[in-house]
Amino acid sequence: MLKRKDKSKSKTESVFGIWAGQLSRAAAEYFRARRRTVWQGVIAGLTFSAVVYGLVRLNDYVHRMDAYDGALALEWVDLPDWLTLPDNQHVLDDLVRAVDLQSTDRMLDAQLATRIGTALAAPEVGWVHAVDRVRIEPTGVVAIKCRFRRPAAWVRHGRYCYLVDGEGVRLPGTYEVDDCRVNALLMVDGVSAAPPNIGQPWPGADLASGLRLSALLADQPFRHQIGSISVANHRGRRDRSRPHIELATDRKGSRIWWGRPPEDDFGTEITASQKLLLLETLYRQWGRIDMNRSYVNIMTWPDRVAMPAVMQSSAQGRLLRG
Q: How many CA atoms, within 13 angstroms, populate the side-chain half-sphere of residue 198?
């Protein structure tokens, strides 16, 4: 008697066989793909290594070429006029030392421009307000363009004088007082705060007032007769009955009583413009803004001045013509 076949079991074995075949094919395909990936990675790695090696060799070759192996030279682009004067050559000398360009520096150094820009922008350099551009030219020239801090005035503190720019930032150097008197810059005397570090703002409203006045006086025809601006009594801190600011002339012991700082005189004194006009009138009529007297008071009237009582015998001189 023949046995009856189990159809469900045969069907299961058939399905299992199909799955097994598909799994086997998938595994084979997976391993083939893995082998391709591994070989592709090996080839890519070898190719990358060859490219890097070639670039290194090319870089070494280029660096050894005469055109790229020479010493570099500095060039300052668009220097302001005041820095081209022989008397200010020491400023450029200071900046060259700050750049610290070495004989071993080469134009293909990718970090060279950044290094130079960072060195010049350091506050302790003092002379540089901002570095606009450092460019390494194909000719081997390091071209540097900066905005510089121009000296605006001397500041006397104690036994010495210091340079500041128009914003009151201290510039490099410590100078003897007598050496500063022959310079074209005005001196601000009597500031209360001590000198800051180079490249830092000198604090104090007294210096700020002195610098504003110095800027107003700079282009006046009588400027050469003014030696210094005294802010020792700024805002009446020593004596409220005395002028807040005085101008010392080049005649020993003679002062101009200026009064309150510019922009701080509204409603209390004549304006800074009126004071300048008074001084110009004195200069043209008398030849001297101090009229050869110990002091001249220009704080009160727009058309006349006050002076010591010894001058009263020539009272008509107190009234200005024109």
A: 14
The pLDDT tens digits of the residues spanning 158-194 come to 999 999 999 999 999 999 998 887 778 999 999 999 9
Which DSSP string corresponds to 184-201?
Answer: SS-EEE---SPP--TTSB
Q: Would you place residue 1 in the very low, low, confident or very high pLDDT band (cuts 50, 70, 90)?
A: very low
Amino acid, res. 297 = N
Nearest-angstrom CA–CA distance, 220 and 215: 10
CA distance 252 to 294: 9
End-to-end CA distance of the chain: 151
pLDDT digits (tens, 9 = 90+) for 232-241: 999 999 999 9
Least Cα distance to 261 among 283, 278, 237, 285 occurs for: 237
Return d(Cα 304, Cα 147) in angstroms, integer.
44
pTM > 0.85: yes or no: no
The total of other beta-carbon atoms located within 10 Å of residue 187's CB is: 21
DSSP 8-state secondary structure symbol assigned to residue 44: H
Percent composition of the chain: helix, strand, coil (DSSP 3-state, to 5): 45, 20, 35
Tokens of 207: 């210096």
d(CA 251, CA 287): 13
- Structure tokens, 112: 């060279």
Q: How far is Cα of residue 101 from the mean position of the Cα atoms in its chain?
A: 21
Question: How does strand 175-176 pair with strand 141-148?
Answer: unpaired
Whole-Å CA distances, 13 to 2, 17, 19, 175, 240: 22, 6, 10, 106, 115
CA distances for 16 relative to 6, 11, 21, angstroms: 16, 9, 9
Cβ neighbours of residue 188 closer than 8 Å, sequence gap 6 or more:
153, 154, 155, 156, 207, 210, 211, 214, 228, 229, 231
